[in-house]
Input
Amino acid sequence: MSTVPEGEPLIFNPFTPDFMNDPYPHYAELRREVPVHEHPGGFWMLSRYQDVFDLLRSSLSVEQRHVAPGPFRDAYEKAGVTDEPRLKGLALLDRDPPDQTRLRKLVTQAFTVRAVTAMEPRIRALVTDALDTFAEAGGGDLVETLAFPLPFTVISDMLGMPPTDTRHMRELTGTLMRSVEPTTDPVVMRAVEAADAELFELVGDAVAWKRNHLADDLLSALIAAEDDGDKLTHDELVAQVTMLYVAGHETTVNLISGGTLALLRNPDQLELLRAKPELEANAVEEMLRYDAPVHNSRRVTLEPYQVGEYEIPPGSFILANLAGANRDEEFFGPDAEELRLDRENARRHVSFGGGIHLCLGATLARIEGRVAIGELVRRFPDLALDGEVEWNGLLSLRGAARLPIRV
Output
């Protein structure tokens, strides 16, 4: 069924009443009808799997300064805020080569697979504590008790951050993540700018403190990281730490809550996971495909970019619709809209992006999702929803703000 009146053009419209509850019918319609979509708001959107896959692995820019004059730039001026990118534009996610290459090389010296996998015992202990809380209360809010505190605590422990106001940091990081939302709301834009500045100062203070209190942690390793005499400057270090801190937990909240909700709404798959725990790793990949923690990623064209018969001009802002691409029937088959934990090509999802900007924290997210959801399912055979899901109101980072469960 179409989401627009007959005769009117189909456009990406995330502001309809039903979109937040389930955006996937709209994504499917866009994929069928306007897979290369020039939006009247001044951006393009791609939603077919192959188009998104190719875009993510292209040499297109991620730097906001290359966007041509138009609605997005005009919105900054009207809001009375600067167009300086988040974290001074120094985070890996916001840089092109050669700067991105240099920064990633230094960061990956510290953020290694070995350091990440070594966290699994700590992750299991935190999950056990959260499940004990559910057991004592007979249930509760999955987001508040497990999905948020687990990745937040894990990345804080890994970094070796000094004691901080957890609630305030949660508010600031949540606001900062709105910078990846397709919004021109001046109130939101000013709030993001203020949160960005405050976070940069707070993390800068933590970095300065850590220089005098070096330890066996990720932040100390980042401070020490060096490549042929090259080291991260103070501002670069602050930007990478903040990126790891924010991206290290915000997206994993959506993986744990979204994956659990998908199982509860598909009881046959929930029972399959209980019966075949060896499916855990592939199950997490299928959950990532079925409901992506991040729905959109961005690129900016520096020269004409061809997608089929369409030529996207230089200076264009393109949204890669990761969530829509993950359900493309042309790639994942006629049952792409269904959750199937034993799907053979589930790992081919694009939820972690791709190319040089492939998510640095993918391994950590997979471990946290596997342990949290696996243990939850095993421990509570009567696991069930206990009320309506409350959504966070975000578009690119759509997820549950509250997910009541009964155990």
The two ends are 37 Å apart (CA to CA). The domain at 24-406 is CATH 1.10.630.10 (Cytochrome p450). The chain has a mean pLDDT of 90. The longest helix spans residues 234-264.
